[in-house]
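Okay, is this right?
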Amino acid sequence: MVAADNWDSHPNAIKLWKFGQTPLQGRLVYHNMDWNVGAPNHVSHANAKPGMTPEQQAELERFKKTVAETRLALKEVRKNLRQDAEGLVFWTKVANIALMPLLVAFLGLLLALIRKRKTA
């Protein structure tokens, strides 16, 4: 059962109570940060799953959150990998377009210089 606990040290505490425990204890599921703020008027059970304990539901929600965080991290890794690949393509083009003709020209001048020394 989900209900308010007026004796809790947290402002407007709402707890998940499990009957059958001695002493009766509840797990804190909501509280405000200020005693002057009113408590919620409605608590929804829309996310409750039949046949699952509240602990199983909480673990399932933690797992879903972990999956979402992992997907975001994977998306970031893919973005960085794509940027690295684009950078590599850019420098390959620079080497092919600019450096190779310069290397060929340098080798041509070197060969001309060597031939000129042999004939002189």
In short: The mean pLDDT is 85. Strands lie at 2-4, 14-17, 26-30. Residues 54-119 form the longest helix (66 residues).
